[in-house]
Amino acid sequence: MTGGLTHLNAKGEAHIVDIGDKAVTRRRAVAQARLVGQPETIATIMAGGLKKGDALAVARIAGIMAAKKTSELIPLCHAIALTKVSVEIAEHGEDAIVIMATAETTGQTGVEMEALVAASTTALTLYDMAKAIDRAMVVTDICLMEKSGGKSGDFVRA
């Protein structure tokens, strides 16, 4: 291991981490993303008034699908048998939408990346569906909010 980074070997070369000896535990991660836009845009998205259809339903499904495909998108992630993925979408003030994505598994490695990919893909899908009315929207604050399970223990963002 180089400098504590588990995806690098002693020579500094990238490799997938061997999880064969890790204990099987219940693991959970929650990630967030925010979509900031004009108040009229946020209201239109939340009211289901976009010409492309029900943006909230489409974005929620996109987030769930993305979590399932994380190992195909992030090169050194293990393919994980997810036991649960949920995506919550809520208005936050007049000019933002907050996405909270939860991923769970019982396995030998965590689900932080699956939750992060789900949250960001949900936000990007909302952007895609509303860009015709507001190209200045910003996807921001993509972060891990909490995780539990595994050798490294629990994490909760302050």
Structure characterization notes:
The chain is of the alpha+beta class. 29% of the residues lie in helices and 30% in strands. It has four helices and five strands, in the order βαααββαββ. It has helices spanning 39-47, 55-68, 70-73, 112-130; strands at 25-36, 82-91, 96-107, 138-148, 155-156. It has a five-stranded antiparallel sheet. β4 (138-148) and β5 (155-156) form a beta hairpin. α2 runs antiparallel to α4. The two termini are 29 Å apart. The mean pLDDT is 92.
Concise overview:
With 158 residues, the protein is of the alpha+beta class.
The shape, in one word, is elongated
Give helix and strand order, one letter per element, not per position. EHHHEEHEE
Helix content: 25-40%
Number of strands: 5
The helix tally amounts to 4
Q: Strand portion, in percent?
A: 25-35%
- Whole-Å distance between the termini? 29 Å
Going by helix content, strand content and strand pairing, the class is alpha+beta
Largest sheet: 5 strands, antiparallel
State Rg. 17 Å
Strand arrangement across the biggest beta sheet: 2-3-1-4-5
> Are there runs of 5+ residues with pLDDT below 50, and where?
none
* Chain-averaged pLDDT: 92
